[in-house]
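Dear all,

This email documents one entry for the complex benchmark we are building for the journal club exercise. For each entry we list the sequence lines for every component of the assembly. Then comes the predicted three-dimensional structure of the complex as a token string, followed by one or two observations. Please use this as the template for your own entries, and keep the labels exactly as they appear.
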Amino acid sequence: MSVERKLESLGLVMPDIEKQYRTNPTGARFRSHLAHGNALYISGSIAMKDGTRYMTGVLGKDLSIEHGYEAARYAALHCLGIAKFALGDLDRVTQALQLIGYVNSADGFSEQPRVINGATDLLVELYGEAGMPTRAAIGCHGLAANNSVELVLTLLFSGTEVRSPLAREKIAAAR
Amino acid sequence: MSVERKLESLGLVMPDIEKQYRTNPTGARFRSHLAHGNALYISGSIAMKDGTRYMTGVLGKDLSIEHGYEAARYAALHCLGIAKFALGDLDRVTQALQLIGYVNSADGFSEQPRVINGATDLLVELYGEAGMPTRAAIGCHGLAANNSVELVLTLLFSGTEVRSPLAREKIAAAR
Amino acid sequence: MSVERKLESLGLVMPDIEKQYRTNPTGARFRSHLAHGNALYISGSIAMKDGTRYMTGVLGKDLSIEHGYEAARYAALHCLGIAKFALGDLDRVTQALQLIGYVNSADGFSEQPRVINGATDLLVELYGEAGMPTRAAIGCHGLAANNSVELVLTLLFSGTEVRSPLAREKIAAAR
């Protein structure tokens, strides 16, 4: 079964990355992804669902571990949305190489791994062993727009064609 | 116009990286940069101006977003100072691959992207599309000497010659 | 003198990485390491001594800089334990490429570099110049199980054989 079919069977809908990159509330300039050799670098990704930010808040204050787990799952889906845009086919992903998961954490919260499990569990459900990256789960102090989780993921892929990255361009009025 | 001429026209003066690496208040041992293939890894860089740290403090407490933006701009200039030292010519940079921007953040501050925009705006002013990296903007909880922003930047470059990195060596008395 | 002999002469005992990866209190799924070309990516590593977590707590509140330094030293030893598992021989390490050191920091703590020096000092004691990586020292807000330091290290190595990474698999009952 293809990775996209597996996503469907899990009831997960790929986010509309192009639509998302057309909005730019902070006037930022960066790209969705860049390939270097057969490594795909993906920009910091947050949880989106139905086109809006999902499960925002601070772990250990506003959100339970289960909420954070869900946020990490959807943030990983967001990464996969970019990978799909870049590679055309999610089955071209050969290995999740590195995942750094930042968890927006209240004072004293130390369950970052159980939160980031939401991301790695999804990757393993889809890719098996190839979905198990090297990983770190770090408590951070604030994320854009009060997001709860941000993932920085690097994937390895087969083949050579990579679609030009989406550019989040500065919007004059935004700053 | 060369990248260095563009920097001049923006009124920006490249930091003296060699002088900076000769001082070592924390007795640290690390290098300014290392090349791996055609990727240049640059050590965490903070804002310097006229040889001293610039715009120190915590976002959301001591500093406004505009101050943080300025700090990120100068931290990016610091990265470019290292790239100039390493590559000899800033026009050898072919792509900004990945930028992780850490913003020293007070409780509840969530405008990290608008701060890190100071770095990516400068890169785009100098390099156009090639200056747009993949990016993450992360709120952190403390940086060396109360710096407000620290950037970890990886660049791609053309050609093969790379100058030996500056080594920040341990100074016995420093610890 | 081999790197392992140097470790012995420093009185440092390599952690039992295999034993450690068999336990999985948070039900996480990730790998100890992955090789990409001649770069070895190592998962976020914390301080272990005699099979248990070592020097836990928050810098600037529970722990002194000296304690944090010690934690960083043992976290680097943990990384080397993974490198030994992966490469068979620590003398195959040719360069420490990048070290991102996260320091669990109390409000106002800004001595992250003096903490992470514990890691880079050990690498330099063992490898000389080749042990000096590019580096960043970042204050974070919470780490798994109240660990004080977490390191994300990338090494370059010679030769081609790399042992299959240890997988921290999910344990059904753990979540």
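Observations: Chain B has four helices and nine strands. Residues 6 and 126 of chain B are 7 Å apart (CA to CA).
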